[in-house]
Amino acid sequence: MSLSRLALRLAAMEALCPHASLTSRRFPTLAGDRVYDSRIEAIEALSLEEKGHPIIVVYTETNTSSPYEGSKHRPNEHFVDLVIEASIAAAATIEVLQ
């Protein structure tokens, strides 16, 4: 894992859920403090307070780079896809009639 990708995700999380907001309880998004770094869980694993509320998950994907011309040193440019998924977590039980 690249430290630059981690720094990018943490910067995005700080923009969406600033650390100062955790004490003041005033958040810039409707998700409030439900902003997560690369969370992959089933909806059933969410706590009761998270279900039915907006959540935001921040990912980094596809890290590519282009090298300097004719050099074997560090890459000249890095490209990283920053993915911010916003959703409303909900679960339901559906009965199938036969």
Verbal overview:
- This protein is α+β, with helices and mostly antiparallel strands and about 100 residues long.
- The protein has helices at about 5-15, 20-25; strands at about 35, 55-65, 75-90.
- The protein has a three-stranded mixed beta sheet.
- Strand 2 (about 55-65) and strand 3 form a beta hairpin.
- The longest helix has 14 residues, at about 5-15.
Task: Give a quick summary of the entry.
The chain is α+β, with helices and mostly antiparallel strands and 98 residues long. It has 2 helices and 3 strands; from the N terminus they run ααβββ. A hairpin with a 7-residue loop joins strand 2 and strand 3.
Please give a handful of descriptors for the protein shown.
single chain; 98 residues; alpha+beta; 3-stranded mixed β-sheet; 2 helices; flat
